[in-house]
Amino acid sequence: MASITFDGVTKEFPDGTVAVDDLSLDVGDGEFTVVVGPSGSGKSTALRMVAGLEAATRGTLRIGPRVVNDVPPRQRDIAMVFQSYALYPHMTVAQNLAFALRMQRVPKPSLLERLARVAKRLAIDELLNRRPGQLSGGQRQRVALGRAIVRAPQAFLMDEPLSNLDAKLRVEMRAYLQELHRELGTTIMYVTHDQTEALTMGDRVAVMRDGRLEQVASPQELYDHPVNLFVAGFIGSPAMNILRGVLVRHDDAGLQFRFGDQAIALPEHVTKTRPDLHQHLGGEVLLGVRPEAIALADGPVPPNAPVVELPVVLTELLGSDVLVHVQTEDSTLPSARQFDAVEDSGMSTAAVAAKQDDNGHGTRLTARLPAGSRVAVGESVPLVMGPDRLHFFDPVSFEIIPATDT
Amino acid sequence: MSAVGGRRSTRIALDVLTWVVLLVMLAPIIYLLLASLQDNLALSTGNFELFNPSFDGFRTMWSRVDYTHFLINSIVISAGAAVLATAFACTAGYALARFRFRGARPYELTIIGTQLVPGSMFLLPVFLGFIWLGKHSFLELQDSRVGMVIVYSAFFTPVSIYLMRAFFVAVPRDIEDAARIDGCTHFGAFVRVVLPATTPGIAATFVYSFLMAFDEVLFASQLTQDDARTLPIGIRLFVSAHSEQYAQLLAAGVVSTLPIMVAFFATQRWLVKGLTAGAVKG
User: What ipTM, to 2 d.p.?
Assistant: First the structure.
């Protein structure tokens, strides 16, 4: 087993496209690191550089202590699982599994023993004489995994290995892969565009966009403390609500965040722990709040709690929860142009679209409430935001306005 | 007549037309088969005895002319040319399918462009070239199997390249990458994974060049005399100034057609695939 270290690695293609830009990332020995990002973020290119299928233009790439920039793929002692599975179509399952071992000239008894063990572990021992064309998607997936595992490599590289499976199988395989990782303890670098996979599977998650690394952290840290608007919008489903508003001093009581026809009081400790917030006083700021950080205020709320009262435009029952979409009557602030800027910042289009109705009027907010909450479309509901779960972003740089105590 | 009835009768008419066209196309072959089962007398009078077939032609054709010699020549020359053409097509087709090298497009167009020039245009240059080489070097290509293999492989390589390119394009790049990670060099991945994955394509390409070489008449008639004479030329000897062995000629025709028919039907599925894939993606 070995760690994988990117040190200022850049990949520039001959046509001038910079796929990976000055990436520094450390995948610890035995760690399950997920690299997540939208398509075109350079995550697959980064992985292919580790495999040796692409050469780094600049920077140093290490597997363990060894610099591998100029090492051909076959000498890197890593195994890769492809999205397309990439099974050898003319070979049986057994031959597919044995291929790498045969290339390494592993003696036959040992080869057969390893093959049998892996086949049994992955429950593909019944399929050994079939060809890939005769297997179902899930079976092919397991053979592809088996082909990687049987080699007992330094590290596994996985390039969206689950995205060709149907939803149910994907959830199963997610748990299965984590189990395998616990069992084998081998370093895994896993690339996906699916933030759910990233959150559920990774020991650590690296978020990439446009070839750059945005944030590396544990899933919880990433979810609770995104460093910028992009990470905030990309991680979590439904996406974090982003409100563009103005920060004003209300009275002695403290600061207020105003958007549309609404004004939210900000408790003192929220503003106190964010000294930089005061620089935005009188100006614009972006407020982020996750759908589950919003609750129905059906009892008395503490004074100065961030409360909005808005009409419900749509409810979506998820079973245990209900997603409640509320909308401001009118908003002059989040103009279409400003939202373009939010989109430019890399927030997914869906997340942005969810914030505006079709006409671009009003600001939409999504709250995740317990199923059975008494809300009806058309009625106004009072919603209270968890004061400790508010995120503020600079409206120009889209960076987080950090809180000191977290 | 109702609209439905009209459509129905149109369909039947089209079906009948299809069968008629097919019959016209198959007529020579049917005639060949039926006529080969008649004796010379029936053939000369035209009174075919369809229910009393004679196998005389098949029996005697082997001794009349050196049919076996021609058959061996044809097989050796066609197989040699097909092996070479397929081998060139594998490497060149792979390069065209995978590598984006400078001049790839002109190279491709040139390959196809060679097919625009009528093959017969090359006859005189090749003929004179062979004679010149025979005079000025040790290369005796005139009336030799090697000469014919060279000519045919040169002729059928371009289309073979085109065919193989289409098959290589269809091989996912991922399996090559997987092979390289699994311990192969780039060339090793080509030999161990890509080539085996295109076996049907290789078979189809081989059969294509084999058929073309097997059927070729013009060059064979001018470049061979005795040593390298191939079947299409050889079977004309059944009919000469001194004797007219039509039964044997027809029987030889049937025997000559059989192997290539078998080869064609065994691989026609892939042949069609290779040609259409090239057409769609080209």
Answer: 0.83
The top-level CATH class assigned to A4-229 is alpha beta
A158 phi and psi angles, rounded to 5 deg: -125, 125
| SS3 readout for chain A | CCCEEEEEEEEECCCCCEEEEEEEEEECCCCEEEEECCCCCCHHHHHHHHHCCCCCCEEEEEECCEECCCCCHHHCCEEEECCCCCCCCCCCHHHHHHHHHHHCCCCHHHHHHHHHHHHHHCCCCCCCCCCHHHCCHHHHHHHHHHHHHCCCCCEEEEECCCCCCCHHHHHHHHHHHHHHHHHHCCEEEEEECCHHHHHHHCCEEEEEECCEEEEEECHHHHHHCCCEHHHHHHCCCCCCEEEEEEEEEEECCEEEEEECCEEEECCHHHHHCCHHHHHHCCCEEEEEECHHHEEECCCCCCCCCCEEEEEEEEEEECCCEEEEEEECCCCCCCCHHHHHHHHHCCCCHHHHHCCCCCCCCCCEEEEEEECCCCCCCCCEEEEEECHHHEEEECCCCCEECCCCCC
Residue with tokens 């209300």: A250
B184 touches chain A (CB under 8 A): yes
How would you write the pLDDT of chain A (406 residues) with one tens digit per residue?
Answer: 799 999 999 999 999 999 999 999 999 999 999 999 999 899 999 999 999 999 999 999 999 999 999 999 999 999 999 999 999 999 999 999 999 999 999 999 999 999 999 999 999 999 999 999 999 999 999 999 999 999 999 999 999 999 988 989 899 999 999 999 999 999 999 999 999 999 999 999 999 999 999 999 999 999 999 999 999 999 998 889 988 889 998 776 688 898 877 888 888 888 888 988 888 888 899 999 999 999 998 777 777 778 888 889 999 999 999 999 998 765 444 443 344 444 444 444 434 433 443 444 567 889 999 988 888 898 889 999 988 899 999 988 899 998 886 4
- What is the distance between the alpha carbons of residues A100 and B154, in angstroms, rounded to a whole number? 39
CA–CA dist B6, A103 (Å, integer):
67
CATH class assigned to A241-393: mainly beta
Angstrom distance (rounded) from CA A151 to CA A384: 54
Contact B183 A53 (CB under 8 A): no
Rounded Cα gap, residues A266 and A51, in angstroms: 50
Residue ranges of chain A assigned to CATH 3.40.50.300: 4-229
State whether B199 and A78 contact (CB < 8 Å).
no
Residue range(s) of every CATH 2.40.50.140 domain in chain A: 241-393
Does the beta carbon of B98 lie under 8 angstroms from any beta carbon of chain A? no
Contact B181 A51 (CB under 8 A): yes
Question: How many CB pairs below 8 A link A and B?
Answer: 63
Q: A149: nearest CA in chain B?
A: B182
